[in-house]
């Protein structure tokens, strides 16, 4: 019977041995390609189809299902999107504004697909070559929303960090921003939102009579990344993985909130970022690594017209034992700047200077005084 037999389709751009794709390898992520590219590249072997379908009507039904699915994904009607249970659930779960249409939310989940390989090089020295990522139709993917969302995230998080930590060096500031909006961080946020990935092949969905509303409510992309295996690592340019797809979806949803309201209620967008992105805990002090803390502290005190820092032994234990402990404090005049401990006087002195530097750089403005503290810049040692 038809439902119990695998369906094999021969393609001219095949990326697997013997130039054969199984039905599980043809997923909805391929539909982001244009119609002309598909018609140009795919050549159906009529003899293979005749043996598998045994009925031309069945294949015609599959063609009709495929065409309707492709047409819907290219331009999702609002009335169809409103019937998608995944889109409705995600819309309510994130408390998106009423102006945010379900069709726009579906577009946020449609990523620019990768172009399938047109040429395979079997030379082990060259590995498997993939062409660069190309865009799906601009009206149906989240490419533009992703760029706008990334700019919104960068602006707001930079503003919040500088307002809270006005003395952060530029290098540490960039590292903190990346910790909040990197692809890995945003992917974890997208997964926590309950966004599902479309992994079912078209043939399987056709055999199950799955409605198109299910497809448009899932994250759609084409994965051209390759995993490490047996100690061999294949490096590809413009890899597009599930992590990147989730990150694109999160940025696009943030941009969609701004676009749907016309930017009039910018506070809603920034509150959304505060609730879902900045709500995660980040210890900024863990991002610092000082090579010469004592010297840098001396330069800092000199720049701020403070007295030269002096290290003093506050307490010690077991000086002549195997595991001594020294507690060192660093002072500028009568003011204690920092404190540290170590198994030697040198180690304790370095940790005390590091503690003093962290207290300076990680200074947090008090509520109502955020615009008063202005830093003079990074210390150059």
UniProtKB/TrEMBL annotation:
<keyword id="KW-0694">RNA-binding</keyword>
<dbReference type="GO" id="GO:0003725">
    <property type="term" value="F:double-stranded RNA binding"/>
</dbReference>
<feature type="domain" description="RNase III">
    <location>
        <begin position="129"/>
        <end position="195"/>
    </location>
</feature>
<dbReference type="Pfam" id="PF22892">
    <property type="entry name" value="DSRM_MRPL44"/>
</dbReference>
<protein>
    <recommendedName>
        <fullName>Large ribosomal subunit protein mL44</fullName>
    </recommendedName>
</protein>
<keyword id="KW-0689">Ribosomal protein</keyword>
<dbReference type="InterPro" id="IPR044444">
    <property type="entry name" value="Ribosomal_mL44_DSRM_metazoa"/>
</dbReference>
<dbReference type="InterPro" id="IPR044443">
    <property type="entry name" value="Ribosomal_mL44_DSRM_fung"/>
</dbReference>
<dbReference type="InterPro" id="IPR014720">
    <property type="entry name" value="dsRBD_dom"/>
</dbReference>
<dbReference type="GO" id="GO:0005762">
    <property type="term" value="C:mitochondrial large ribosomal subunit"/>
</dbReference>
<keyword id="KW-0496">Mitochondrion</keyword>
<feature type="domain" description="DRBM">
    <location>
        <begin position="292"/>
        <end position="362"/>
    </location>
</feature>
<dbReference type="InterPro" id="IPR036389">
    <property type="entry name" value="RNase_III_sf"/>
</dbReference>
<comment type="similarity">
    <text>Belongs to the ribonuclease III family. Mitochondrion-specific ribosomal protein mL44 subfamily.</text>
</comment>
<keyword id="KW-0687">Ribonucleoprotein</keyword>
<dbReference type="GO" id="GO:0004525">
    <property type="term" value="F:ribonuclease III activity"/>
</dbReference>
<dbReference type="GO" id="GO:0006396">
    <property type="term" value="P:RNA processing"/>
</dbReference>
<dbReference type="InterPro" id="IPR000999">
    <property type="entry name" value="RNase_III_dom"/>
</dbReference>
<dbReference type="GO" id="GO:0003735">
    <property type="term" value="F:structural constituent of ribosome"/>
</dbReference>
